[in-house]
Design a protein that fits this description.
Length: 280
């Protein structure tokens, strides 16, 4: 595996591969890699000749400096995982390399970016759009791969891709879960042993809500999830919204959309965990 730290070298190497007629898949990550990332890489390897993985903790998408400071950074272990996963190029730049000057671009991300994470984390999605658009511009991949754990993020990235006119196929990949149902996340390593044992209750409650939804209204189902999780020691729901999977807007009736998705953010102690479930 080639490790590249400079933007110009990355551009040149990817261009060489494309000149030889090879297709390129990009998997953007912030490192602290786990089996969820590896599943994206596996998919990218099946569908492309060359796989590029970026490992970059993007400061512009953190609205909380403490979250940025404590975000796990595990470059050595990440490189080992990337090598084992058969990645061709790992792009691991410094902050100065990606942002030689402050990125002042403000993206018009529309309604998909205004609710849920957009409302709770001001500036977060603009920061995601900044870094992903930069990576798209540097690599110009044929396809880019994102995990459905960050369900709303994918909708935002689709919008940015359209706005910027990138000819890149956005591929969403299913959530990878631990054996007990907890959605895999780089943040899970910050859970204490006790919190780690409690955290699977988030997905358990989401699954239970699939049954509740069969005979209750959207609002009753929403309240069920919030109350059930809030009743569990160490867990506190920040939001639970049941939204149209296409528009990310909260729905009132189950018949309001083709596919409804319940998106939850829960504090487990001070660790912020997110998850989601599809209702139809
Ligand atoms: O989902 C993530 O890990 C990040 O938001 C992404 C897409 C790599 C951009 O920094």
């Amino acid at each position: 595996m080639e490790i590249i730290r400079k933007v110009e070298l990355l551009r040149r190497r990817v261009e060489e591969e494309k000149q030889c007629g090879r297709s390129v898949g990009l998997v953007p990550t912030m490192g602290a890699l786990h089996a969820g990332h590896v599943s994206l890489i596996d998919r990218a390897r099946k569908e492309n000749d060359i796989v590029v993985v970026s490992v970059f903790v993007n400061p512009t998408q953190f609205n909380n400096p403490e979250d940025l400071r404590t975000y796990p950074r595990t470059e050595e272990a990440d490189c080992e995982k990337l090598t084992n996963a058969g990645v061709d190029i790992a792009f691991i730049p410094s902050v100065d390399e990606v942002y030689p000057e402050p990125d002042t671009r403000v993206f018009d991300l529309g309604p998909v970016a205004k609710v849920m994470e957009g409302a709770m984390r001001p500036g977060h999605f603009n920061g995601v759009a900044q870094i992903v658009s930069k990576l798209f511009d540097m690599v110009r991949p044929h396809r880019a791969y994102f995990g459905e754990k960050d369900f709303q993020q994918i909708a935002v990235i689709r919008r940015m891709t359209e706005l910027e006119g990138f000819n890149i196929e956005i591929i969403d990949c299913p959530i990878k879960r631990e054996a007990d149902g907890l959605a895999m996340s780089s943040r899970n390593v910050r859970l204490t042993a006790y919190q780690r044992a409690i955290a699977p209750n988030i997905y358990r409650t989401l699954q239970e809500s699939l049954e509740i939804a069969k005979f209750k209204t959207v609002e009753q189902t929403r309240q069920y999830v919030i109350n059930t999780i809030d009743d569990i020691d160490e867990l506190e729901v920040e939001y639970y919204e049941i939204v149209d999977a296409k528009t990310m807007q909260p729905i009132k009736n189950w018949t309001d959309c083709e596919t409804a998705v319940g998106c939850v953010t829960v504090y487990c102690g001070d660790v912020r965990l997110i998850d989601n479930i599809k209702y139809q």
